[in-house]
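Re: the 370-residue chain
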Amino acid sequence: MFSQNNKISMRQIEILMILNLFSNTSLILPRVASEIAQGDGHFIVIGGAIISLLYAFVITSLVKMFPNQNIVEYSEMIFNKPTGIIIGSIFCLKLIILAGLEIRVFGELVKQTLLRDTPIEIIVICMLLVVVYLTRKGYEARARMAELLIYIIIIPLIIIYLFAIPDIKLYNISPIFVITPTKFLYGSFLMSFAYSGMELLLLSTPFVLKPNRLPKVAYGSIGFVGILNALICMLTIGSFGPLETSRQIWPVMTIMQSIRLPGALIQRQDALMVSFWIMTVFLLINGYLFFAGLLIKKIANLKEQNFLILPLIPIVYLISLMPDNIVETYEWLTFMNRYVSLLFLLPIPLILLIAAKIKGMGNKDVSTKG
């Protein structure tokens, strides 16, 4: 029966946002930050979170004006139908490509750490089938799954990282504030793409019970994930140094392998980290496919979207196998985040917001009633 109930609470949307933001670049953030800012990498991560608050302000200001519509519908209202179709098509294509790339990263990581003798094609197909099953159950089922996973993922992860604190070498992160203001601003701007999951609010607002509270939830989610990412970067760079961190594809996995829990309670923390990350990326890919189906439904003016999910499987599968290796996969992801995701983080929402204000469109006061 839950698949018929597509309204979720503010607590659920906050949990979904936290997991989406954290899963997006959690494994590689220390590497990227150390490449840009060396020992000051954690500072540009915080700077990126601050910049992403601007994205959140613009996006939430827009969606509050149209609480019962998604970006395709209010783009048509503000401008015209062709504009809405173009924006929706670009967004849909972006989500499908990101789903393929994220599932490729998932397959590579699982193959290298857990299932070395399993072909990556089998890993990708199995993950896709499980993701599609949840996708067809609706948005509310996804929110319930997130409620179960948040405590399984975040709390144990924080506890394990506490045991990495004694391994920090202060000379790896000192002296501090040696980064130039120009490089700090540039690095912070690049780090802000780690919060590109914020763009999903452009599609999820119609499923939220109290959209007027979205700004508070968005700011809180960014703040929590920003602090967590900064701490992970500080621990990783502090343990290995900026040079060694920048040389590793997944430095977070390396630090997990080096942690030794008291009493040998868990022998392979890296496998535990993979398990946590699998849960978060599972929800992220699920969101990509759910909203891709929703966009196709709106663009084609269809009544149902569930039957659209299965045809997406071979498309996502083929996209996931297009990069030759994991390095090329991350190059594709970097391009998508820096040039395509940016469109939906600031320029497009800002243009729609300004145009709606000028035309006097949208709700002036969104009701707080669920």
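The radius of gyration is 20 Å.
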